[in-house]
Amino acid sequence: MTVAANRRRARIAAAAAIGTAVVLAGAWWAGGSAGGDREWLTVTRGPLVVGVEVDGTLRAVRSDLLGPPLITGMWNYKLASLVPEGTEVEAGAPVMRFDTSELERRLLDEQAERDHAATELEKLATEVAGDRRTAELRLAEAQARLRKAELKTDVPGDLVRADELEEARIDLALARDEVAYLERRLELLALQGRARLAALSERRDRAAGRVEEIEDSIRRMTVAAPCSGTVIYYTARGSEKKKVGDSVWLREQVVEIPDLTRMMAEGDVDEVDAGRIAVGQPVTLRLDAHPDRVYRGRVRTIHETIQRRSQASPAKVVRLEVELDATDPERMRPGMRFQGEIEVDRAADALLAPADAVFGSSRGPVTFRRAGLGVEEVRPRIGRRTDRWVEVLAGLEAGDELAPRPPEGWEAEG
Fold first, then answer.
1. Rounded to two decimals, what is the model's pTM?
2. CATH of region 101-220
3. Which of 332, 339, 383, 395 would you call most buried, defined as having the most Cβ atoms within 10 angstroms of its Cβ?
4. Where are the strands (E) in 170-252, listed by range?
5. What gap in Å lies between CA 27 and CA 375, rounded to an integer?
6. CA distance 170 to 102
7. Model confidence over 318-367: pLDDT tens digits?
């Protein structure tokens, strides 16, 4: 091919490129409004931070959770009163009270049992004492007969007839047997009396013990604050705050009195992102109640199990805990919702194109760079990306100006 032919081909290619740029420029400006110049997006250099979304709630590092007391035979309780949320309470002040009607019925039954046993015990003690006195009287009479019989036999043999002496000796033997029998009977009555009294005393004492236990249970149905602080209504994930009249199961938490000087965040990340999370990664978060403020922290703990996000949402998540760099006692409260981002990757100095200026196509990413009076199509090689930025590995340079949307008529699948 001659030199002239090569020059002619170069002029044709340049003209075609200029024509394409002019066509794109015409399409670009034709697609615009009549209101003035369009805004261009600039390729720049800077740090690129890649993050994973996290959301959850705040909780206190140290907190007292209060619920119904452990009462023998009770599993379900009814909330009878509850101090308003946000109330400042002193240690020992009542916070909530549970219905005691069932315990009061038990108390009446046990009091009746105790009083009945006490009455029966008094009657039995009187009966045992009477039986003992009767037995002691019979023994005394028998002992008197024994002494008389002994006197009759304690005479010289030459002063009484032989038959009378023999009769006296028989009477003496009978008197001795009677005294021995009555002594044994008295001992047996004493043993029986003590056993009967002990059994009835134990029955009375058991009932009295149950009365004391129920009275103590009734007192404990009023739950006091273990420390001074602010009352927060506790809510487990997917549940609602308790209110007066609600049923509360044993070991279910109702009220939280937190230490507001030390807070932490407990959040969830999608299961697909869990493998990118590591302990120590930086976290930034905003409270739903105070979205204008940014708080920072680091991932402290990552739970190993995968669970549902909530009862209403089947999405699989991994739970983690975030240690906050600082606590804001004036704005932070347990249970507050937050939205945040965990930094999983960072490039200190990357070439960045605005994400709004990078478009997808069947042949890969596409940008439209400002070129004179028009735009030219550029297909850059890109790396990591965030919602706002795309890392450019090749094809663009810092300072390039990119169109925020494709020219009119451009098709992504073209």
1. 0.53
2. 1.10.287.1700
3. 332
4. 222-224, 229-230, 232-233, 247-249
5. 10
6. 71
7. 999 999 999 998 899 888 999 999 998 888 889 999 999 999 888 899 99
